Amino acid sequence: MKRYDWGTTRNGEAATLYELETDSLLVRILNRGATIVDFIVKPLQRNIVLGYDSIHGYEQGDAYLGATVGRVANRIANARCKVADTEYQWTPNNGPNLLHSGAHSLSFAIWQLVPNSERQEANYEKLVLATTLQEQQDGFPGDLRVQLIVELVGAELRLTYQYMTSKDSVVNITGHSYFNLNGTASLPHVDGVMATADQGLITNHEIQLNAKYYMPFGEHQIPTGEIAPVEDTPFDFREWQLVGKALTAHYQELAEYRGYDHQYILANGGIHSEPRAIADIQRCGAFRVSDLELTVLSDAPGFQFYTGNWLVDEGRNSEVYEQYSGLCIEPQFAPNDVNMPAFQESLTKANEMYERRIVYAINLGYNK
To answer: Which domain does 177 fall in, by range?
Structure first.
C-alpha cells in the first residue's frame, strides 16, 4: 500500500491518500470521510467514480462524492427522532429534514489508520481506518466508534463497517460513491471542448436491481412506510433496462425528484424476512456499459438508488458534474426508519458490536 500527503484541511488536519492495487483495480481512499477518491479499472485505464483533485474540492463540494456517510445516512423526517424514550432534534439541512447527519457526519471526520492493519499478498491489499463521533459533536445519543475495513481482492473492493455506540442509539452507515462506467474523463470539461449532448452521462448505462419492492414517498422524500411492489411502476428494474430510457419514459412521475432517488427492499431483506446472519450477503443490483459491468452486493436489507439528479459541480481535471453524471447504489436501512415503528433496524444497543458490508465487483470479461 502507498500513502500520499494530500495537504491539510481547513482545520489544519493532515489529509492522507491511501492507494491499494491489484492486477485489476487501483483504488485510492482519503482519510477525510474515508472517501473513495479513485476507482480505476486497470485493463481499461478508466476511473469510474466521480471525485476531486484536492482536499479542498472535497471540503467545498456538497454531494458527498465517494464518502462514508453516517452516523445516519439519508433523511430523518423533521430533523428529529426518539431513542429510548428521549427525543433528539437537529438543525434541518434538507428542507425540514436532517440529511446525512448534518455538519458532523462521518463524511467530514478525519479517520485514522489502525496500527498494523495493513496487509499485502498476491492480488490482495487491506487497510483499516477508524474514527469516533462524540455525542457532544453530532447530537446523537452516545459516542459512536466505527472502523472501516477496506480490502481489495482481485476485481472486488470490499468494505466492512464495524461500529459500536456507548448508549442505545441509531446508526445507518453506507458508502456514497457515484459511479460512471464510461469513465469520468468522458464527461464534459469546463472549457467546453468535450461538451456535447449527453456526453459521458449514465443515461447509456443498463441497470438491473434485485428488488420486487420499493418504498413510495410522502412529503419531502420521506417514505410513507408502505412496502409497494415495483411491478407496473417506473421503479421496476428486475430486468435489464436502459437508464436513459427509463428516465425519459417516466419523466412526469419522476419530475419532482428529477430522477430516481428511492429506497428498494432487497429480495431477501427488509421486514418481510427473518433476520439474516452477518455472513449473508446478496446482490443489490448491477449496471453495465458495452465493455464493463459493476455489481453491488451487501448484507443490508435494502438500498437507495440515485441517478445524480442534483449534481452541479466541477470535479477532477475540470470535469463538469451535472445531472446524471453518476449513479449510486447505497446499501442501507430505510430512510427515516428510526421514526417508523415497523422498521427501526438502525437502532443499536449500547456496547454491542454491529457490522455492515458492501462489495463492488467488476466483471472485466463482460461483453454485451
So the answer is: 2-203+307-362
